[in-house]
Amino acid sequence: MKIAICQINTITADLEGNVQRCLDAVNQTIRDKPDLIVLPEMAVCGPFAMDILLDSSFVSALQTANLDFAWLNRFNPPILFGSLIASEKSISNHGNLLNSALLASNGTNEIVAQQKVLWDFDIHHDSRWFCSGEISKIIRINNTNIRPLIGKDVMNYSDLVFPENEKEPDLIIALHNAVFANQDIQEKIEHLMKIPYPSIVVNQVGGHDGLIFEGQSLFINPQKQKCSALKKFQTDTNFLSFPNTDFLPIQKNTQEADWLEAICLGIRDFVHKNNLKHVYLGLSGGIDSAVTTVLACQALGPENMTVLSLPSRFNDPRSTISSQELCNTLNINFLEISIEPFFNLFEHELNTLAKNENVLENIQARLRAVILMAHVNFYGGLLLNTSNKTELSLGYGTLYGDMAGTLSPIGDLTKPEVYQLARWINRSQEIIPEFILNRKPSAELRLNQVDPFDYPIISPQIENYVQNNQSPPSMRASEHKRHQFGTILKLSQKTFGNGRFIPITRR
Questions:
Q1: pLDDT tens for residues 310-342?
Q2: Rounded CA gap, 334 and 474, in Å?
Q3: Residue 400: CB partners within 8 Å, gap ≥ 6?
Q4: Which of 29, 164, 242, 357 could form a disulfide with 4 if both were Cys (CB 3.0 to 4.6 A apart)?
């Protein structure tokens, strides 16, 4: 049988738009006459709708959208797609929803699978909105017995219990949206190879706030120990002839390539899906802002961003010069505005307070944020933050200063990882100037200042604490800063934000 796999990029709660995106993907396939078309998990409602799912009016509209989608495809081949349906259970202050796989055929929907295993860890809070389902039907299409699965059930296949008298499936089709977390694809394949049947795992692609859905939908045959995949970080449609499948090798990216593609996708979708057009950031002449500039430029194009250099008396002139060089190389609009006049005024007016070095350092960082936000407020758009994960972990940043910004593209990369990515960016030609790559890290907020950390040593140590949900004294004093920080693009298994809940007040 010929199966069309549609790896699409939806927008959360955009029901009308998502139905159209699904239709567009379907229409790309029907000329090749597939026997079955497969769309991802939550294709109609969009991923991670969270407490929107507690709104009964949204749930009602979603049920209508599910029916509309089936009716609009009444003349097309059967379509297996993911969405949510209302449960008959009634739990107070709960979504009462079932994450479901629906089979649209002849203008109607049939529920063929419901998520049984609910995940409640890291970014997943399934039991807040979903009920554990019971339905998992074998469907027969073109003489092939197919067991559909939805959500995380494919990753918990060995824990599932099916009726004893049910036919053995020829094929598993799982609708499962995989969030990128810097995981080796081989680990996932080895896990899925334990399922004793050939499997198709269809994933969403795209950025959703801080989450990045990686795509790379898979076909796995455990008997042949082979696997093929759709594109990573891109929308894609492809066909699979079962059981006579020609296997193509999976293209394995380097870690740096994965970081770059994931971050660019995250930036692009955050900006576009929020109907924004322009981004701003401060380019200091340091490695973090330089890498962020390159990533934003690749994601959005130089015409959709403005970079500001905001030097004070403490900045090495080469910081501004190298920032200008980087923007010239990338053809980005570059503005230089000295903060000295404003800084002098604050020094004078604050009098006694200005005699404190810490006060003066933080004033500079906050003055830069004021100027950056003035441009955002006047022209529209958003401010990108340029902090890295090690600085965030240690609280080495000024609240409402260099920690300002709606989106943090590299907030889940440690300081050494930022350098690693920068060198990879420069692998073929010099994009980031050598001065930026080779200088000692410095906030340049006082004379001859350098960062007080040995990053190659402390970064792995502090990251180990983060990944293990620990909060040593070196991190506790800055917990309040992280609680107020912008949206971080998730790249690792444990990211600051909605996957880590550490209280500010504790002993």
A1: 999 999 999 999 999 999 999 999 999 999 999
A2: 37
A3: 366, 369
A4: 29
Backbone angles phi, psi at 417, to 5 degrees: -70, -35
Quick one: average pLDDT of 103-113? Answer: 97
User: What are 460's two structure tokens?
Assistant: 């792995």
Residue 370 tokens, joined: 């004021």
93 and 54 Cβ atoms separated by less than 8 Å: yes
The DSSP H or E segment spanning 373 is: helix 357-379
Q: Hey, is 276 helix, strand or coil?
A: coil
Check: pTM over 0.90? Answer yes or no.
yes
Alpha carbon distance 191, 174 (integer Å): 14
Cα–Cα distances (Å) from 160 to 116, 153, 163, 340, in that order, read: 8, 8, 10, 65
Please tell me the distance from the alpha carbon of residue 177 to that of residue 251, in angstroms, as a whole number.
20
CB distance 266 to 212 below 8 Å: yes
With bands split at pLDDT 50, 70 and 90, how would you rate the model's confidence at 190?
A: confident
Maximum distance among all Cα pairs of the chain, rounded to whole angstroms: 84
Distance between CA atoms of residues 110 and 103, nearest Å: 5
CA distance 123 to 211: 9
Residue with tokens 């910004």: 405
What six digits make up the tokens of 243?
A: 């059981």
| Residue type for position 43 | A
Q: Residue 107 — left, alpha, or beta (φ > 0 → left; ψ -120 to 50 → alpha)? A: left
Q: Is the pLDDT of residue 248 over 70?
A: no
Whether cis (ω within 30° of 0) applies to the bond prior to 243 is yes
Domain limits, the chain = 2-245, 258-488
Point out the least confidently predicted range of 19-33, 142-156, 183-197, 307-321: 183-197
What is the C-alpha separation between 259 and 265, in angstroms, rounded?
A: 10
Query: Cβ atoms within 10 A of the Cβ of 140, count?
Result: 12
Phi/psi of residue 304, each to 5°? Answer: -110, 20
Report H helices in 177-254: 185-192
Q: Three-state DSSP class for 332?
A: coil
How many C-beta atoms lie closer than 10 Å to residue 241's C-beta?
A: 12
Return the amino acid letter for 319: S
Which residue stretches of 226-309 are H helix?
A: 255-273, 287-300
Q: Is the pLDDT of residue 154 over 90?
A: yes
CATH architecture of 258-488: 3-Layer(aba) Sandwich (3.40)
The architecture in CATH of the region 2-245 reads 4-Layer Sandwich (3.60)
Query: Tell me, what's the pLDDT at 162?
Result: 87
- Which has the minimum average pLDDT: 97-101, 221-225, 239-243, 369-373? 221-225
Q: Are 61 and 105 in contact (CB under 8 A)?
A: no
Smallest Cα–Cα separation from 225: which of 196, 254, 183, 184?
196
Would you report the helix, strand and coil content of the chain in percent, each value rounded to 5?
40, 20, 40
- Going from the C-alpha of 324 to that of each of 278, 334, 428, the distances in angstroms are 19, 7, 21
